């Protein structure tokens, strides 16, 4: 699997990444053995970039990921985690987490983008994972905390990066406008863009992607299935879009895209994974995977060639925006490692 470098840093990511939120029991419990074999399958598939966060399962994702990676040489993989939510004792536990993870709520999340909060969060993440360093650190969902995130958290991360403690820094969010601000107004090297550059939503073309191109910075794309609507060969009415029931109009549009994909001899999920790579500053697509079967399927989808004319036909039919960049090769990827 090819690698791409986070621009202006020494950190290289495999083009496909392993998103570890689901092994933190997102929405439903993932047995420990399934989580371990999923990471093992990812390694066997050539994936060397693994993303997690304290938020995911109140630390469970970090614990499981660290334990599974311990058998591999540390210099052969890249790990990213996030700051902004400290895990603290829960003084009023109800028995189960209230933010979508099937775990006990003995801990709770506390927003904190202060310098001290950043340092404490990183130290706790390293302890949970049993690692001596993080390669990439993102500010996690700072939507309502711009000032503290930009003026305290990001400078703290920049200091750690400049000292060589961290390889690259950035922010990860479900919106694109503020990510553009982080690229333009802070020391961020890379942003993690969730759901805003997909076959169903290209709004990132209005802000964060032009900023990345202008400033020669990097973007990691996540949420490329938009919570599931783009994950099936033929979308059904009961699928989710951005964590909610998918509106009928979007289901119909996803089916229309699937029809065009089929006419070109490919599939909707394969096209959904390949689509972001057509933009020169998107260096990685990271997918959440909770089992060996999911890893194998996604790695196979990511390896499928995409006919060059697919994007042209989708543009011509108004199914993607007219200003979506043309893929540089048939797979929608740059022909060289960046």
Q: Give the helix proportion (percent range).
A: 25-40%
- Number of spatially distinct domains: 1
Q: Which runs of at least 5 residues are low in confidence (pLDDT < 50)?
A: 329-338
CATH superfamily: NADP-dependent oxidoreductase domain
Just name the CATH architecture: Alpha-Beta Barrel
Kindly estimate the percentage of residues that lie in beta strands according to DSSP: 15-25%
Count of separate DSSP helical elements = 10
Distance between the termini: 13 Å
Strand line-up of the largest beta sheet: 3-4-5-8-9-10-11-14
CATH-defined fold name? TIM Barrel
State mean pLDDT (0 to 100 scale). Answer: 95
Rg calc: 19 Å
| Gross geometry | globular
Helix/strand order, N-terminal first:
EEEHEHEEEHEHEHEHEEEHHEHH
- How many strand elements? 14
User: Which class best fits the helix and strand makeup?
Assistant: alpha/beta
Main sheet: strands, sense, barrel: 8 strands, parallel, barrel
CATH class: Alpha Beta
């Amino acid at each position: 699997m090819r690698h791409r470098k986070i621009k202006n840093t020494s950190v290289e990511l495999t083009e496909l990444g392993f998103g570890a939120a689901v092994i933190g029991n997102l929405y439903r419990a993932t047995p420990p053995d399934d989580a371990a074999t999923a990471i093992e399958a990812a390694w066997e598939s050539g994936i060397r970039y693994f993303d997690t966060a304290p938020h995911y399962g109140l630390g469970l994702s970090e614990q499981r990921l660290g334990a599974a990676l311990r058998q591999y040489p540390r210099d052969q993989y890249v790990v990213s985690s996030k700051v902004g939510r400290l895990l603290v004792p829960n003084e009023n536990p109800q028995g189960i987490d209230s933010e979508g993870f099937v775990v006990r709520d003995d801990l709770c999340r506390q927003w904190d983008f202060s310098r001290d909060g950043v340092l404490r969060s990183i130290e706790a993440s390293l302890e949970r994972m049993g690692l001596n360093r993080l390669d990439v650190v993102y500010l996690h969902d700072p939507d309502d905390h711009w000032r503290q995130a930009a003026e305290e958290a990001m400078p703290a991360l920049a200091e750690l990066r400049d000292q060589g403690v961290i390889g690259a820094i950035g922010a990860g969010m479900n919106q694109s406008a503020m990510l553009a601000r982080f690229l333009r107004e802070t020391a961020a090297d890379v942003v993690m863009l969730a759901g805003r550059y997909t076959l169903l939503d290209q709004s990132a073309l209005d802000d964060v992607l032009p900023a990345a191109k202008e400033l020669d910075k990097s973007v990691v794309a996540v949420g490329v299935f938009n919570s599931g609507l783009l994950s099936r060969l033929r979308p059904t009415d009961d699928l989710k879009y951005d964590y909610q029931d998918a509106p009928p109009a979007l289901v119909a549009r996803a089916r229309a895209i699937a029809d065009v994909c089929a006419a070109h001899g490919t599939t909707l999920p394969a096209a959904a994974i390949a689509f972001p790579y057509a933009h020169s500053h998107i260096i990685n697509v990271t997918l959440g995977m909770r089992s060996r079967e999911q890893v194998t399927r996604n790695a196979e989808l990511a390896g499928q060639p995409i006919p060059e004319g697919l994007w042209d036909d989708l543009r011509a039919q108004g199914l993607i925006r007219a200003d979506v960049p043309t893929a540089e090769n048939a797979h929608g990827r740059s022909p060289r490692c960046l």
